[in-house]
Amino acid sequence: MLLEIKDIHVHYGKIAAIKGLSVDVDEGEIVTLIGANGAGKSTTLKTISGLRPLSAGKILFGGRDISKVAGHKRVLMGIGQAPEGRGIFPGMTVTENLFMGAYARKGNVDKDLAEVFDLFPRLAERKSQAGGTMSGGEQQMLAIGRALMTQPKVLLLDEPSMGLAPKLIQQIFSIIEEINRRGTTVLLVEQNAQQALQIAHRAYVLETGSVVKSSDARSLLDDPQVRAAYLGGGAESAI
Ligand SMILES: Nc1ncnc2c1ncn2[C@@H]1O[C@H](COP(=O)(O)OP(=O)(O)OP(=O)(O)O)[C@@H](O)[C@H]1O
């Protein structure tokens, strides 16, 4: 197993956001976390990347306990994240933003840059444009591209479809599939459960900080309770 999240608890002050959550991600998979607002999806990703500390439980990466490893070291180990809200450097060009993803590591950066431009031709067309002047969709591409420049073994994606027009959403999801086909494992957090389940191999449903259901993605798409609660089938909640 590439990534093992074992019975973790995470707090914001006294508020327990994650309560005994366990999730596994195997090498080569796309795994998605779905759930209502506030279920703890983003917090789970932030905890894996080291932005939030654990109160209990542990996280193993490649069999090694990384629970106490600093965030920047986790990036070097192969945990890459494209954060919610993009987090790109607005005053830097597209190329400079991409190089920032690779500044701390060794290896052939130009080859990875060429690969990112191959995945996102739009970024190649706009390589000298300031990141802050790119459209929402382009900034999302840039954030994913920058995460890829860290050469992740697992790519953590937080709401990549947020705020994008339907056509662009399709495009981002196809690119995520392509990134996975080229060998990167993906852990995807999405409000857009329908789209996420269509590209994922497996999925976990989160409710108030715990997993309430997990299965292969196809069965969740067909699950009446999941359809009702998360796929626009009507009733709001309760599995
Ligand atoms: N900085 C914070 N301070 C206090 N509480 C927080 C903070 N960030 C998140 N929370 C709380 O932790 C819980 C989980 O939030 P989280 O953002 O992980 O949920 P989510 O599933 O990603 O939701 P969404 O889909 O709305 O982004 C929520 O109750 C939220 O209010």
Automatic annotation (TrEMBL):
PANTHER family: HIGH-AFFINITY BRANCHED-CHAIN AMINO ACID TRANSPORT ATP-BINDING PROTEIN LIVF (PTHR43820:SF4). Belongs to the ABC transporter superfamily. It comes from Actinoallomurus bryophytorum. The keyword Transmembrane helix does not apply. This is Branched-chain amino acid transport system ATP-binding protein. GO terms for molecular function: ATP binding; ATP hydrolysis activity; branched-chain amino acid transmembrane transporter activity. InterPro entries: AAA+_ATPase, ABC_branched_ATPase_LivF/BraG, ABC_transporter-like_ATP-bd, ABC_transporter-like_CS, BCAA_Transport_ATP-bd_LivF, P-loop_NTPase. One of its GO terms (biological process) is L-amino acid transport. Coiled coil: none annotated. Gene3D superfamilies: P-loop containing nucleotide triphosphate hydrolases. Keywords: Amino-acid transport, ATP-binding, Nucleotide-binding, Transport. The keyword Nucleotide-binding applies. Pfam families: ABC_tran.
